[in-house]
Amino acid sequence: MSRTGRRASEQGLLTITLDDYLKLLRWSARAIQSGQRRTIPRNLATILERLELEQAAWETTLTSYDESFCHAVGPEQSLSQVAERMGVHHLKGVEAARRIFR
Question: In sequence order, what DSSP letters do the residues of the chain get, joined into one string?
């Protein structure tokens, strides 16, 4: 549990642990930084499966975050829930979420 309770995993947005998320981010950063397309290791592929993401969609999310999202990343329904909690009608990223998340 974080001090603020504002992590996505604490708000029901991510179905993975913080440790798994950090492992996935570290591998992804190395893959993106190398500029070479790499097959994700099986132990990390299971994390993407839990998030219902294909590897290519995950990479797209990371490399185009600023253009596609703002406050949160996730399936359209999750973005709607975050918007409701924030007291706004919608969040940037709904169209991208429809393309990326199954």
Answer: --SSS-SGGGGT--SS-HHHHHHHHHHHHHHHHHT---PPPHHHHHHHHHTT--HHHHHHHHHTHHHH-SS--S-HHHHHHHHHHHT-S--TTHHHHHHH--
Count how many residues are written for the chain: 102
**71 contact partners, CB below 8 Å, separation of at least 6:** 82, 86, 91, 92
Assessment of whether the complete model's pTM goes beyond 0.85: no
**Side chain identity, residue 63:** T
pLDDT 10s digits, 30-60: 888 888 777 889 999 998 888 888 888 888 8
Task: Say which residues have a Cβ less than 8 Å from residue 80's Cβ, sequence separation at least 6.
Answer: 90, 94
Q: How distant, in Å, are the alpha carbons of 58, 65, 85 from that of 62? A: 6, 5, 24
Rounded to 5 degrees, φ, ψ at 83 are -60, -45
